[in-house]
Amino acid sequence: MDAEAVVSEDSCPDKKRRVHGMLKLYYGLNEEGKAEEEEAQSLDPCDINGPHFDPEHFLNKLRRECSLAELMDQETCMVKQIRSLDSDMQTLVYENYNKFISATDTIRKMKNDFKKMEDEMDCLSANMSAITDFSARISGTLQDQHAQITKLSGVHTLLRKLQFLFELPARLNKCLEMQAYAQAVRSHRLARCVLQQYSHLPSFKGIQDDCHAIMDKLALELRQKFRDGGSSAKDLSECVELLLQLDEPAEELCDKFLSHARSRLESDLQGLEAEIRPYPSASAVKDASVRGLSSPASTGSPAASSPKASAIFSPSSNTDILEFIDRGCNEFVSSLCLVITSYQELFVSHAQTGELASKNIPEMANAKLHAFVDDLAARYFSLVERRIQEEKGVGDNSLLVRALDRFHRRLQAVTKLLPGSSVPSKGTEIVIRAATERVKQYLAALQSFYMDSLTDVRQALATPRLSVASASVGGGGGPSGRDGPNSLPELLSSLSASILNQIKSVLASVHLFTAKDITFSNKPYFKGEFCSQGVRESLVVSFIKFICQSSRQFCESSGDKGGSTPPALLLLLSRLCLDYETSTISYILTLTDEQFLVQHHSPVTPVTTLCTEAREAAQKLLNHYVKVQGLIISQMLRKSVETRDWVNTIEPRNVRAVMKRVVEDTTSIDVQVGLLYEEGVRKAHSSDSSKRTFSVYSSSRQQVRYAASYTPSVPMDTNLLSNIHKLFSERIDIFSSVEFNKVSVLTGIIKISLKTFLECVRLRTFGRYGLQQIQVDCHYLQMYLWRFVSDENLVHFLLDEIVGSSAHRCLDPAPMEQSVIEVICERG
Predict the structure, then answer these.
(1) Helix or strand or coil: residue 257?
(2) Nearest CA among 590, 326, 550, 384 for reference residue 457
(3) Is the dihedral of CA 714, 717, 718, 724 positive or negative?
(4) What family does this belong to (predicted)?
(5) In the prediction, which pLDDT does 102 show?
(6) Which of 109, 432, 595, 689 is most buried, judged by most C-beta within 10 A?
(7) Which residues pair with 810 in a beta bridge?
(8) Would you tell me how many other CB atoms lie within 10 Å of the CB of residue 411?
(9) Of 299, 314, 290, 482, whose CA–CA distance to 398 is shortest?
(10) In this structure, how many other beta carbons lie within 10 angstroms of the beta carbon of residue 230?
(11) Coil, strand or helix: which one is 166?
(12) Nearest CA to 753 among 634, 605, 624, 615?
């Protein structure tokens, strides 16, 4: 059932189209509803749908050609078509019944309305005919007097003009007394041509002379009023306009107008200049910058930052920069725009119409106006730049940005009033210079902040440095240093976080220059060069390079102890630079690019270059740290060797104190480096690493070396044997670069220390007990130092060299028994 309904609904539109097509075909209509007069007409009389259809001929043809069954089928088909057409016709009538009724009512109403309209038209036609007759009678009556009336009207007009001329002097005097200058000039201009034309007549000549005298007096009063300058802008404009109408020289009027306007504008500039202080001294600016950014690591709480940590307060001033710009815009710029408008209306717009159009005033007036505006605008810009230079503090940047935005926005009015003026472009240059200078100030502030932070870190390291060293005993002084209030990880974290927060704060302040609600942010400079070169390169990249360069400068200090730089600071800075190379630089530059939508149209410093520079700085700092710490221990060893009489010394009973101090300092360094760097990779240690002294110092090489004194019958060159042994030993690079781990750092320090010990031993002469003391000291060092290095064989080799050299320099080389050495070292 549903399927049949769907089929019937689908076939309904097709059925309607077919029915309408048949009706159109029956009535002879084409697709547009017009008669098929232009189409080819069929002449076949048997075409039942054609216009030439002949029923008799059609029936005869059917009877001849069709059988009875076919005739019956044809009749049935025709009956169906007739019924279908009748049905469709009734359907159309039913569907359009309301339309037929409405059309009938409309036609009936139209008949009534047209009947009423016909009556009104008949009445109107009768009235028009009566009017026409009446007008014709009046024209006929006045025909004789028309010429006389026209003549009298002309005479009356002439008499009124003559009366105006004769009354003109009195009228002008009265206007002069009432100060109605505009009306006087207007009246004189109406009569001037007539008086000039008939000046040969005595009566008109007298009137003309009187008028000239009165107008000269009026011009004198206008010039006096113009020179006084006490009138309003509207009165002044009216005065200039009247003087131009009185044929005053336009150039002289331009100069007088601009001179009068200059006096007012200069008074505004003097008021602005009075608000500007003299240039601050360089020391005052430096003190303000130093006070503005606090250090991140204050004593006792490195991570705490005071409220002044992110602000450098501007020097005190009577008015802030925004009030200064507001006053300049509301007074000077507004007055300048008013002067430009009035001047153009008087000397440019009016001069292009009327009698002044032929005097070429606009070109001259425009040239004078441009020079006038450029001169005063240059003075105003110099005052603005002086006031901007007073904004040395980089705390709150919003006031400066709002002031520059208002300054730039108000100058756009000059562009509309004076096309082609260079004032707006010069104003934009001031904004650009101010933004660039602001970036430089922020860079200087960041640099000052960083140096102050390092100073505070050095102060924080000074106190715990002694406590850590004193508390760090041979086995484990680390916990004392690690639990201190100013441990290296805390200082590093505080320093890194404070620098990063300061950079974010500076970027947020600089980002105000590119805010969407700032008019000059749409300038190409602030969309491109300011973001890429100004902020990214000149600020962020320059500050990162400054950190690396200033850190490398700590490695340039000279002296046996590495200068005045604390070794802990070198270690901390090396870790800081390494962290920057690992992640911080990439994070800062990504943050800058996203925040400022940096588009690299011009070449910029790639991240890899900065990371390489930071890694080089970290490597140099760590190498210098190793050198400084090695030199400190080497100094102790050198003094201990040089200040002792090794020939006449007593038999050793204990380890020298300096060796204990060396082990303690090495342990303290190990703890210190372990706070910032990972352990590193060591080679596998042997099970008897701490007890290899005997085997090392009683090696076959030494036995051969000592054999010369015991068996003099067998001559032997011990130097030759030593050199041969060195050829087959692995070369040790004492001052090679270290890796970024604790083991490598300690290995470098121990290599420097033991190499110094070796060279000092080679310069001394030893007795029997001196040699034995060196054996005891080296065995003690061997017991502890092998734990800190990456390869214990390195310690064994250097200590072996020390004992061997001392034996070679010994007058009576009688080594101590290994068991005795071990007892002395274990006893301590």
Answers:
(1) helix
(2) 550
(3) negative
(4) Belongs to the VPS51 family.
(5) 84
(6) 432
(7) 766
(8) 27
(9) 314
(10) 8
(11) helix
(12) 634
Collapsing DSSP to helix, strand or coil, 680 comes out as coil
Find out whether 764 and 750 touch, Cβ atoms under 8 Å: no
Check if the beta carbon of residue 820 is closer than 8 Å to that of residue 779. Answer: no
Q: Residue 111 contacts by C-beta under 8 Å, 6 or more apart in sequence?
A: none
Cα separation of the two ends of the chain: 114
Stretch among 70-84, 429-443, 726-740 having the lowest mean pLDDT = 726-740
Residue 35 backbone phi and psi in degrees, to 5: -65, 145
- If phi over 0 gives left and psi between -120 and 50 gives alpha, with beta otherwise, what is residue 265? alpha
Which residues, in sequence order, are bridge partners of residue 428?
none
The residue count of the chain comes to 828
Burial of residue 283, with CB atoms counted within 10 A of its CB: 0-12 exposed, 13-18 middle, 19 or more buried: exposed
SS3 322: helix
Angle ∠(495,499,501) on CA atoms, nearest 5: 115
Contacts 24+ apart (CB under 8 A), 409-414: 409/519, 410/329, 410/333, 411/333, 412/519, 413/333, 413/337, 414/333, 414/336, 414/337, 414/340, 414/373, 414/377
Query: CA-to-CA distance for 94 and 109, rounded, in angstroms?
Result: 24
**Per-residue pLDDT tens for 308-364?**
334 333 444 457 888 888 888 888 888 888 888 878 877 777 554 545 444 567 788
Contacts for 255 with CB less than 8 Å, ≥ 6 apart:
368
How far apart CA 493 and CA 247 sit, in angstroms, is: 83
Q: Does residue 684 register a pLDDT over 80?
A: no
Torsion angles phi and psi, residue 592, rounded to 5? -65, -45
Number of Cβ within 10 Å of residue 393's Cβ equals 20
Query: What six digits make up the tokens of 816?
Result: 């101590």
Which token pair is 84?
């279908």
pLDDT in tens, 225-235: 766 655 665 67
DSSP helix/strand/coil, 275: coil
Backbone angles phi, psi at 496, to 5 degrees: -65, -45
Rounded Cα distance between 156 and 318, Å, is 75
> If 0-12 CB within 10 Å is exposed, 13-18 middle and 19+ buried, where does residue 93 land?
exposed
Q: Comparing C-alpha atoms, which of 558, 602, 619, 656 is closest to residue 748?
A: 619
Side-chain half-sphere exposure of 634, counting CA atoms within 13 A:
22
Phi, psi of 109 (to 5 degrees): -65, -40
Q: Is 627 exposed, middle or buried (0-12, 13-18, 19+ CB in 10 A)?
A: buried
Is pTM beyond 0.85? Reply is: no
Query: Tokens 């502890």 correspond to what residue?
Result: 784
CA distance 603 to 540: 15
CA distance 375 to 684: 84
CA 640 to chain centroid, in Å, comes to: 63
3-state secondary structure string across 55-95: HHHHHHHHHHHCCHHHHHHHHHHHHHHHHHHHHHHHHHHHH
Which residues, at least 6 apart from 496, have a Cβ–Cβ distance to it below 8 Å? 576, 579, 584
Extract the tokens encoding 580: 């920057």
Contact 746, 657 (CB under 8 A): no
**What's the pLDDT score for residue 278?**
58
- Rounded CA-CA distance 434/466 in Å is 49
Q: In a 3-state reduction of DSSP, which class is residue 738? A: coil
Least Cα distance to 825 among 781, 761, 764, 760 occurs for 781
Burial 753-774 (b: 16+ CB within 10 A, else e): bbbbbbebbeebebbbbbbbbb
Short-list 336, 285, 316, 306, CA closest to 453: 306
| H or E element at residue 356 | none
